[in-house]
Amino acid sequence: MGVHGRFADKRASNRVIIPVVMAVVAVFLPAASALSGEIYKWKDENGRVHYSDKAPPEESSKNIKPLQLKTRINTIKSVDVTASDFMESAARAREEREKQQAAKDQRVVMYSTTWCGVCKSARKYFQTNNIPFSEYDVETTERGRRDYARLKGRGVPIILVGNKRMNGFSAARFQQMYGD
Fold first, then answer.
1. pTM to 2 decimals?
2. Are the beta carbons of 162 and 107 closer than 8 angstroms?
3. Residue in 121, 129, 151 with CA at minimum distance from that of residue 138
């Protein structure tokens, strides 16, 4: 094959490529102009503000303003995170979860009545020693009645510390339960 044969093949391939390129340009050129079009803002005769990509009708617009939109791409600034940072934050999160679980395990709940003297002693002990507790009256609250029945209560107070139970109240026994 001579030099002329190679050029003839190239011309033949150009005859195929050029129409394809022209077709692609014809398809994407209108889309590019639509993306770069103007957006108009105007007020109509009723004072309502309108936005459009088409110029408003002359009779219904006052103070036509083409808006200049600023396009920002990837404007988020990232921080550097190393594996050790990740491991430290994971360890802190784990410690926090363990503390919350321990606090939940040590949660104090007392089922009581208003007339019970032992209940008053327990309540005063918790308040004096800054021990957070929840209290449910077994006679006046629905939850107190329901839980008391579920616990098969036979007297008050019933004090729960996590999954441990005390019937009645003794400061020494409570400290033993609460400290464990």
1. 0.45
2. yes
3. 151
